[in-house]
Amino acid sequence: MALDGLLLHQINQELQEILPCRINKIQNVSDVEVLWTLRSSRYTHRLLISLHSTYNRIHLTNASYTTLESPTNFVMQLRKQIEGGFIRNIQQIGLDRILRFEIEARDELGDLHKHFLYAELMGKYANLILVNEQEIITDALKRIPVFENNKRLIHPGARYTLPKQDETKLDPFTCSQAQLNEDRSLAAQLHGCSPLFARELQHRLKEKQTLKSIMEAVKNSHTLYLHQDQGKTQFHCIPLTHLGEPTSSYSLMEGMDVLFYDKEEQVRIKQQSGDIAKVIRRELNKNRNKLPKLLQALDDAMDCDRYREYGDLLFAYQSQLQKQPMITLPSFERDENVNIPIDMRFDLARNANRYYQKYHKQRRAQTILQEQIQLCEDQIRYFEQLEAQLEIATVPDAIEIREELVRQGHMKAKKAGIQRHNKGKQIPHFTTFDINGTFVYLGKNNLQNEYLTRTLARKNDLWFHAKGYHGAHVICCCSEPDEQLLRTCAMLAAYYSKGRYSSSVPVNYCQVRQLKKVPGSKAGMVTMQSYRTIYIDPDTKQINEIYQTYQKKK
Question: Which tens digit of pLDDT belongs to each residue from 37-54?
Answer without folding.
Answer: 999 988 999 999 999 888
